Structures are given as structure tokens and as C-alpha cells.
Amino acid sequence: MIYVIATVEVVAGKREQFLEEFRRLVPEVLAEKGCLFYGPSIDVASGLPRQIPLRADTVTIVESWESLTDLHAHIVAPHMTTYRERVKDLVVGGQLQILAPQ
Fold first, then answer.
1. Structural domain boundaries of the chain?
2. How many other CB atoms are there within 10 angstroms of residue 38's CB atom?
3. Distance, CA of 34 to CA of 32 (rounded, Å)
4. Which pLDDT score, from 0 to 100, does residue 86 have?
5. Cβ atoms 20, 11 nearer than 8 A
6. CATH of 2-99, one of 3.30.70.100, 1.25.40.10, 3.20.20.140, 3.40.50.300
7. What pLDDT, on the 0 to 100 scale, is given for residue 49?
8. Could you give the CA distance from residue 42 to residue 7 in angstroms, rounded to a whole number?
């Protein structure tokens, strides 16, 4: 199993519009072979002193996949290409962390 933490920076003030598009995608991804979990999240004020500053224009996508092979297939799935086209004007940038449980 692997975990993916995808951090997406969106255009200022466009986070809810991005989330609407992302939520449309979720059922298709959950139906993919090897997808165990796939969901968007946003920063929440916790009052904990070690928390990073809140990011109003960031969405963090938490994923879990059975294998790297399944993740690679997900990246090139046709619905992902369509999704990327729908959100291209809403996204400033992003990064991925790929993790293995120990």
C-alpha cells in the first residue's frame, strides 16, 4: 500500500470552485482499480502550537492506493485528463508526496 499527499495551490478566492470540480471527480477515482481512499481536505485551525499557518488557497488531497502500478494508471486515466482540463484555470501549482507505511 502507498499513501499520496497532493497539495494543490488554487487561485486566490477560487478554492470552493475547485472543490466543486474535485468532488465531481471523486466517484470516478474511487471506482479505479486499487483506489482505497481519495478525498480533499482543507486546513482547520486547531490551536496547536506546531501547526503550520492556515492556507486559505490550498487543498490537500489524501489518497491511498494498493500499489504504485495503480497510482501510475490513475495519473493517465481519461477522467483525470478531463478533470485537469476543467481545473487548469483554477490551479496555480502543486506537489506530491508519495509515502509507504512502515
1. 2-99
2. 21
3. 6
4. 97
5. no
6. 3.30.70.100
7. 96
8. 10
